[in-house]
Amino acid sequence: MIILTAAALGVSAGQTRSAGVIALVAALIGMTFALAAITSPGPVSILAFVYAVLGYNGGLMLFVLGLYANQRLRRAMRVTH
Q1: Residue 10 region, left (φ>0) first, then alpha (ψ -120 to 50), else beta?
Q2: What is the pLDDT of residues 13-61, one digit of tens each?
Q3: Torsions phi, psi of 44, nearest 5?
Q4: pLDDT at residue 79 tops 90
Q5: I want to staple 56 with a disulfide (CB 3.0 to 4.6 A). Which of 10, 27, 71, 73 is the partner?
Q6: How far apart are CA 11 and CA 58, in angstroms?
Q7: Based on the structure, what is the number of domains in the chain?
């Protein structure tokens, strides 16, 4: 579930097409994990953080690949006279 949520964040941040927003969301993922680790009464799994980062990056890559595929399909559908 962590990977899917992070991937959704990556796609959503990519849709803004703003480098600042993409970096801010990435920083907020790290800050949220740090805050959860500080306030947690028990041990914290660093693996969950790794999954979140990988999911976020994967979501960004999926968005970029979708843009690329969309552009290729539009070129293919163009009718030349």
Answers
A1: alpha
A2: 999 999 999 999 999 999 999 999 999 999 999 999 999 999 999 999 9
A3: -115, 135
A4: no
A5: 10
A6: 9
A7: 1
